[in-house]
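Input/output pair, single chain:
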Amino acid sequence: MRRAFFLKDLPLASRIELSAFLESVEKRAFKQAVWSLRDDEAALDAVQDAMLKLSVRYAERPADEYPMLFQRILQNVILDAHRRLKVRRFWVSPLSVLKGSDDDADDPLETIADERQEAESETPHGRFEQRHVLALIEREIERLPARQREAFLMRYWEEMNIAETAEAMGCSEGSVKTHCSRATQTLAAALRAKGVVL
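Output:
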């Protein structure tokens, strides 16, 4: 039977690496969970559960394995949360899951502006336009099918390569490419239809 590792059992360097990793991914992971679960409390629970599982089960692993392991754990936790929510909605209440808030000040999607747009984005009109476009992108990401959204976020937001994404999603590299291709085509078409050209 595999022995559970706890932070106190790890050498100081490993504890620091694990803590730094968890701190670096918490906001992105929360946003990812909110997009999928559409409920802030469920998303927070999912992220905390994923962090705890990584810390307990894989803390002794090399730090360069944390991103892939954490993404796989997070996706499994989100899938479990979806299953629980589905059962709860069926048996307990017909109310739909509440949509999460979009006012995260440190949203990583805000980094899409390139250097040419930075000067313009400093004006009130530029900031308004940027917030508007980012809100549109977030809404369209929410509408993607779950597997396309997972692949898209891992590849382009978490910057995982195709092999890492395939391993985290438990599918083939070809499936990752297909999901990403469909997701980007869907997003581009949806944004074009709203008059947004990136």
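Helices lie at 12-37, 40-58, 66-91, 115-121, 124-143, 146-157, 162-169, 173-193. Confidence is low (pLDDT under 50) at residues 1-5, 90-116.
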